[in-house]
Design brief:
Elements lengths: L2 E5 L2 E4 L4 E8 L5 E6 L6 E6 L6 E3 L7 E6 L4 E6 L8 E7 L11 E2 L3 E6 L1
Parallel strand pairs: 2-11
Antiparallel strand pairs: 1-3, 3-8, 4-5, 4-9, 5-6, 7-8, 9-10, 9-11
């Protein structure tokens, strides 16, 4: 069984930065971040393989967001720079697959709110 706990969300002005963390318990799996804005479907943001050698990003965040992991502490990070108002969403950590499809993931965190004001 895997438990995921996100932290690091908050309110930031456009152009600012935030770093999200996801602490995992249990076996190490590939992990990903998804986000869901109000009245929109959940969308893929970034994923990382178990070793960290493979990463993938949504086109909307490429060059601005960086996913990384610390396997010693079983924690995944999402560094978000140059934030835009359209990045406002609840961000979810997911584990158990290495896919851009939310349906492929078994384990989910509770989510953390990121709000970017213009």
């Amino acid at each position: 069984q895997v438990q995921l706990v996100e932290s690091g969300g908050g309110l930031v002005q456009a152009g600012g930065s935030l770093r999200l963390s996801c602490a995992a318990s249990g076996p190490r799996y590939p992990m990903a971040w998804f986000r869901q804005a109000l009245r929109k479907d959940r969308e893929f943001v970034a994923l990382i393989s178990v070793t960290g050698s493979i990463t993938d990003y949504a086109d909307s965040v490429k060059g601005r967001f960086t996913i990384s992991r610390d396997n010693a502490n079983n924690t995944v990070y999402l560094q978000m720079n140059s934030l835009k108002p359209e990045d406002t969403a609840v961000y979810y950590c997911a584990s158990g697959s290495q896919s851009q499809s939310a349906q492929e993931y078994v384990y989910w965190g509770q989510g953390t709110q990121v709000t970017c004001s213009s």
